[in-house]
Amino acid sequence: MSSCISPALIRQYLYCPAAAYYTATGQAEPPTERMRKGKEAQREAVEAVAKALGAEQVVHAPRLSGAGICGVVDAILFIRGRPAPLEVKLSKPGRAVPLPHKAQAAAYALAAQAQYGKASPGAYIYYAETGEVKAIPLTRDLAELVKHTAAQIRRMIAGWTPDPRYHPAKCPSCWYRKICGFTQTKVEKI
Q1: What are 123-178's pLDDT values in tens digits?
Q2: Per-residue model confidence as pLDDT tens digits over 12-34
């Protein structure tokens, strides 16, 4: 069993434990056209955000590993000598940054501070659709949420099955709905 948990899996678990379960058990959603386009636009966005935030150094797509977290973040910005992960999202943030996005950013921040041996002030999320940059401070509560979620994912990898509930705003458009045993089956009238 791997003790290293991906921040993307933490984000996914907080959005829907069933989707994280399928990903962790080898049934990950294949990359979509939107995902591919996001990777293409990423480098240019990272450079623009780094400049706007006054970063002294930018490391593109580094693999982070530390604090039981590992994964490839879009970039690490060094601001006043401290590592701050930057995650690029194609989506809109809504009125507030979604908790799964905050937790993913915080997970990268925890891994960055462990890897670089310097305190991370937190992370940044750039929402490409709106051009907004959101600062995500690495608070104690957010760090505890990341650690708790990583522990739940480790349990899941060890054989525990989560018990998520149907969510009418999420499930109908989810890629996993065709295989998910956690969602309601809808029978259409002919």
Answers
A1: 999 998 899 999 999 999 999 999 999 999 999 999 998 887 788 888 888 888 88
A2: 999 999 999 999 988 888 888 87
Q: pTM (2 decimals)?
A: 0.90
Burial (0-12, 13-18, 19+ Cβ within 10 Å), 10: buried
d(CA 12, CA 146): 12
How much is the CA Rg of the chain, to the nearest whole Å?
17
Give dist(CA 184, CA 3) in Å, integer.
33
For 27-72, write each residue's pLDDT tens digit.
888 888 877 777 777 888 999 999 999 999 999 999 999 999 999 9
CA atoms within 13 A on the CB side of 140: 0
φ, ψ (nearest 5 deg) of residue 38: -60, -40
Q: Is residue 7 helix, strand or coil? A: helix
Asked if residue 108 lies in contact with residue 79, where contact means CB atoms within 8 angstroms, the answer is no
Place of tokens 């970063």: 55
Task: Give me 81's structure tokens.
Answer: 């000598």
Query: In degrees to the nearest 10, what's the CA dihedral of 140, 144, 147, 153?
Result: -140
